[in-house]
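Dear U.,

For the methods section draft, I wanted the exact inputs and outputs in one place so we can describe them consistently. I've listed the two proteins in the order they'll appear in the manuscript figures. Please don't edit the token lines directly; just add comments below if something needs changing.

First protein:
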Amino acid sequence: MAMEIERKFLVKDDGWRMVADAGTRYRQGYLVGSKQASVRVRIEGDHARLNIKSATLGVTRQEYEYAIPLADAAAMLDTLCEKPLIEKVRHHVHFGGRVWDVDVFAGDNAGLVVAEVELEAEDAPLQLPPWAGREVSHEPRYYNVCLVKHPYKDWTADERGTLD
């Protein structure tokens, strides 16, 4: 069984930018979201994938991913996926012996910046970079599948909370 162990953090400043790569544009949408799993279509640069992820909250979830033709993914995003689509640029940042993904959201989720890091175990040691703010791994509203239904542009000040 494929498992993903990932922690998410809000990004509190732009300190990551000076050591990040140029980034890759992502466009993704959800075909199905149920109590058990979500089914996502993603275009990542010039590659496309179908992803099935368990709906379990927390840092460990089942995840399966399969390459699909780019044209098929574009058609599914345009005609079959829930709107709004998730649009973001993902940057890779090396810190503390790990690769962090920093997602800078656009579209209806513009203004949201989240960093995530994959781990080999839930209790793996993790050095946080100085630009990492509050952990949001257990907060569903920061999951992409939830951002489709309740985009960042519609959040109240209380929902946005603090970065630290």
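Second protein (the one for the lower panel):
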Amino acid sequence: MFKLHSMQSSGNCYKVRLLLARLGLPFELVDIDVLSGANRTPDFLMKNPEGRVPLLELPGGRFLAESNAILFYLAEGTRFLPVDPLARAEVLRWMFFEQHSHEPAIAAARFWLKLVRGGRDLRTHDVDRWQEEGYAALRVMERHLGRRPFFVDGTLSIADIALYAHTHVAEEGDFDLSTFPAVRRWLARVADEAGHVDMAWRPAESRQMVSAL
């Protein structure tokens, strides 16, 4: 069985939980309290020297880090990753876009403005940049989704899952989605797909990790 080291409120961790749920794969969820430093303990750093979640522990004891790498690994041989080389490259294109143009603004804004106490005051100088870059990414998505139901080949893929995770809670980072109708329709389509779970969902078997502090 897979073991997923995860923070419940993290969009990057939610991506992996969502795909595991859609695939019907059993896994154990291990909560890592990043805000209290549980990802910086010697034990966790032995598993992932970068100290980041999500971290997927594979049967046999190997570890795989980075949310989109985990999605790619889990999706191999499933309907969520195309076989055609060009379509696979398109999936990767949008996953790279998510990590380089989308997540650094939209997820960062949500983290500091919603999850960190006093985060707005701590990062006041970053808010305008997050807004500019985040809205630029949303405009790219709007133009693309205005002509198609999903990001690649008209069907749900891990590109959609990667982008959905942070976009569906973008308003928690002060992003207004009301002027992005194609994005909002796409969010609804993703949520309507069979096997969808929300960010609060947890598998039946999971265990808590106490704060490191």
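Candidate sentences for the figure legend, describing the second protein: The CA atoms of residues 94 and 159 lie 6 Å apart. Helices lie at 11-23, 42-47, 67-75, 85-115, 119-122, 124-145, 158-167, 181-192.

Thanks,
Y.
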